[in-house]
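Researcher: I've got a protein sequence and the SMILES for pyridoxal-5'-phosphate. Could you write out the 3D structure of the bound complex as structure tokens? I'd like something to compare against our soaking experiments later this week.
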Amino acid sequence: MTRTDFQPSRRSDVAPFIAMDVLAEAAKLEAAGRRIIHMEVGQPSAPAPSAALAAARAALDNGRLGYTEALGIAPLRQALAGHYKRTYGVDVPVGRIMATTGSSAGFNLAFLSAFDPGDRVVLTAPGYPAYRNILKALGLVPVEIEVGAETRWSLTPDLLDKAQADGPVKGVLVASPANPTGTMMTAEALEDLVRYCDDAGIWFISDEIYHGLDYADGQKTALETSQNVIIINSFSKYYCMTGWRIGWMVLPKQLVRPTERIAQSLYISPPELSQIAATAALGSVQELEAVKAVYAANRDLLLGGLPGIGLDRLLPVDGAFYIYADISRFSTDSLAFARQMLHEAGVAATPGVDFDPVHGHDYLRFSFAGAHDDMKEALGRLAEFLS
Ligand SMILES: Cc1ncc(COP(=O)(O)O)c(C=O)c1O
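Model: Sure. Here is the predicted complex with pyridoxal-5'-phosphate in place.
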């Protein structure tokens, strides 16, 4: 007789990504003929830069695509070293740069090479939900620290002191600009936190995926403060290449070989086609800045228009393409509110509970990575819905 009592592992019991559930519900409405404005998913609507597409076409015409070194192809790693010199004035040895299958693979690899089962890793709440899900699935312990307006939605050494009092902290992960808040740490706040971790022997993981998308004073990489940090980045956001699944890491010297060994077994290598395209994308700044100008116009439009329709409690939108809005004057159930807004206004946004199980009931995340005309239309629809 066939047994029927096989069970999934306990570690696989991670929360679903609600943004994707909203996307699926929006797709159903679209299939039924409704026009939906998508502000739920954090992905650019622009295609990959033309040079990246041309490089990929040429690679396809040449025929063979194969495995590459687990660390990635040399031209990409060299181009990334050039990017650090050009953008931040930092010299990074090519040997410490590793291409990954999106930043998502970078997190898996970094967590595996830096931590052992049971290690505690500090995250912010609100924060990107995959961090805690990956940590949990790998047998690590996410320690989520609530951040708020008093620390400009960032972690501070004081908050880390408190977390350390409850048990040793092995790692800290921050994103600046952050998802879902779009808020950036000041240069000093980032430096203070990196130095604290350096002194305390805590791995500092800097998710720099939204670098390039800042609307204020420019940004610093954590590499400017310490060579012990783990940098995770991606071609998904600024470079408009989500579907190519290509990212990179800058690793401290002692983690390069361990991470390479794990990658060899887990993924073998990132897709060669995407590595070739990404190399070309690094030279496409002009085209990408034009895309960013649309985000900047969308940001101005929404920051100008949302307060007038009742959404006036917004976090600082320093970077990325998100607005994290306090909706508590309308509802304290962001999940139900997002669903109602989708059905009645045809505007899809992500409930804050995705990012913060405790206070997220009071928030919605709006992504403004879409077309400018769509944002205008969304504002009109929201005005009617909220009136
Ligand atoms: C903060 C943050 N990090 C990482 C990722 C994952 O991106 P990817 O795997 O496409 O590089 C995302 C995606 O939305 C994100 O918002």
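Model: DSSP finds twelve helices and twelve strands in the chain. The CA atoms of residues 171 and 183 lie 21 Å apart.
Researcher: Great, I'll pass this along to the crystallography team.
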